[in-house]
Amino acid sequence: MGILKKSLLLLSILGVTSFALAQDSVIKERTKLFKNGKDIGFITILTPVDVVKKQAGKVTIKVKGYRLENYPQMILRDIKRKELYAEFKDEKSSNESFKTVKKHEDDYGEIWHEVEGVFTIDLKNIAKNPDKLKLKAKKTYEQSCSMCHHLPASNAYTVNQWPQQIESMMEQVTLDPHTKNLIIKYLQQHAADSK
Ligand code: HEC
């Protein structure tokens, strides 16, 4: 067992840190991203992140995802599954915030960049208890979407189909933006092709 694994194990046994498995951390609320004090975009609720460092109420996170070379503003889960992780106000902010790890070409000849970036956000924007947040997302979905018809199975649609389904439902349902984002992310993370 490596030193890092050993110390993580020790920490989790001692219960010293709630971030024993850093890659299991998730964003608690849609949160603005800043660079040199400038508001450059946001990261979405329920986006998985690595916690790199915690200090004085702040947390440094690493975000990994994919973006289109021709439209770098959006950071998505991967080439096939277009779950939104982060969105920037312009190309420059995206290009300055993320570094390209690898380039890929999809079936349509579009070039994708596999990217990662490091940001500092308030500690309160990381879910202390990811399971609790995920349960809340599930309950919100169940309560909001079972009034008029049976609750649709989350795997009835794909990651890319769900946002469209929710949009088409907006003629019938009023959801505040927070609830809508939470439900979209929940459904995308439990969609037919989410695993
Ligand atoms: C105010 C009532 C109401 C609420 C609340 C509601 N729906 Fe619907 N939903 C409808 C109606 C009406 C239809 C259309 C039924 C049809 O045409 O078969 C529908 C159809 C659907 C369909 C099926 C579309 C298809 O092509 O078969 C899906 C998926 C769906 N809703 C998802 C949701 C989700 C997700 C939510 C929660 C955000 C939700 N609905 C909340 C009224 C509602």
TrEMBL record:
It comes from the Bacteria. Keywords: Signal. Residues 1-22 form the signal peptide. This is Molybdopterin-containing oxidoreductase III, DMSO/TMAO/BSO reductase family, monoheme c-type cytochrome. The lineage of its organism: Bacteria, Pseudomonadati, Campylobacterota, Epsilonproteobacteria, Campylobacterales.
